[in-house]
Write a structure and sequence with these properties.
The chain is built from 9 helices and no strands. By secondary structure, it is mainly alpha-helical. The chain has one domain: Arp2/3 complex 21 kDa subunit ARPC3. Helix 4 packs across helix 5, helix 4 crosses helix 9 and helix 6 crosses helix 9. The longest helix has 33 residues.
Length: 208
């Protein structure tokens, strides 16, 4: 029963990117560009990225659609490039966000690619894994610097000195709109893109 609910039959996706040709890198760069630009656009409309989690969205989709390599590379690259281009996220948050977002992409890809879990279960597993990584990163920062940081408190100019668990819970509690958006929309997006690209892959190329 559990196996039937959690595991799906082999499908067209994830269409695993193994980075053996230039097109793989070009495609990944496109994903990173969208994941970098979207938080900046939301910021222009005073919509807080830590609430709506736009960066997380595209990293998770990359892992679910194209495997753990794509998820990990997009997750690693996006916060670094975003910081270099726009100064966001704040430098004090950059290490913990790199760790968190990378795990989202990595776990999403592994659970889909290696364990063949359904999209919703892979998504949920990746979200849990990423947040446990965030808690670990906040705790390490607290041990090293004596302070724990949450994204919204940093952007508001407030240094969080509460214990790591309290800061972690604040971060998760404030991001519930983004979590809800991800759980509702990502399975639909993955299914739609998978259907479109599977259809295109079956179309004759007109060659030969």
């Amino acid at each position: 029963m559990i196996k039937t609910i959690a595991i799906c039959k082999p499908q067209f996706f994830p269409k695993v990117i193994k980075y053996t040709d230039v097109r793989s890198y070009v495609f990944t760069l496109m994903f990173v560009s969208v994941a970098t630009a979207t938080p900046w656009v939301l910021h222009q409309f005073h919509l807080a990225g830590p609430i709506f989690l736009p960066m997380h969205f595209f990293v998770l989709v990359a892992g679910l659609l194209f495997g753990w390599r794509a998820g990990l590379i997009v997750g690693l690259s996006t916060p670094i490039i975003s910081f270099a281009v726009s100064g966001m996220p704040a430098v004090v948050l950059l290490p913990q966000i790199i760790a968190e977002v990378s795990v989202y992409g990595l776990f999403a890809g592994i659970l889909r690619e290696k364990f063949n879990l359904r999209v919703l279960w892979s998504l949920a597993g990746a979200m849990i894994g990423g947040r446990l990584t965030l808690l670990s990163a906040i705790s390490i920062t607290y041990l090293i610097e004596g302070a724990a940081y949450a994204p919204l408190s940093v952007y508001a100019g407030i240094v969080g000195e509460a214990n790591p668990l309290a800061v972690f819970w604040l971060t998760v509690a404030l991001s519930w709109p983004g979590i809800a958006i991800q759980l509702i929309s990502i399975p639909l997006v993955v299914k739609l893109l998978g259907t479109i690209m599977a259809k295109k892959s079956r179309e004759p190329t007109g060659l030969g």
